[in-house]
Amino acid sequence: KYSIICLTVFLVLLGSCTKEFEDINKPYNQPSEASIGDLFNTVVSSMQNSWQELATYHSFIYPLTQQTTQYASSGYRLENASNEVWQSYYSMLANSKLIDTLISQDENSGNMTNILAMNRVLRAYKTMRLTEEFGDVPFHQAGYAIYGIDFYKPRFDTQQEVYKALINDLKWAVDNLSTAPTQVSLGSSETFLKNN
Questions:
Q1: Exposure of 127 by Cβ count < 10 A (0-12 exposed, 13-18 middle, 19+ buried)?
Q2: Which of 80, 88, 100, 190 would staple 52 via disulfide (CB 3.0–4.6 Å)?
């Protein structure tokens, strides 16, 4: 009798581990997909100077350029800011390129050129800042690691190649911004231009 009860409990527990397992174990605070608007706002939020970057300006660069008075050095390490700029950029780049991908796959993509143009302008600004700080950087092949192992080690593009791509992106953005009423709006949740 005891072994039958144990066997029954075991079978019930075994079955309960697989029933709707994927749905039950989805993390509530880690979405598996995002809207174009959410991704765009994430790109916008990356435009701010980071804490470490600001600390570099205030603790190191301003005193050297005599924009503020010199004070005792705290031993602040500049690579903290460099690391933060690098990490922030490549996180933004992945989101920015995902916006491009989602729009290209959307059946209404022709009415989303304004979103693409705004995305390219923001990406160009952030990329320009990165290449001015680091010189040659991964750009054309970067931002695609979510698509698999083949994208884990993108090649470094020369600074000249990066600037040519940025100029082309900005020219495309200027040429394609539209006032047509058919253009899709990100709505009032858009945090950069407040849907203007």
A1: buried
A2: 80
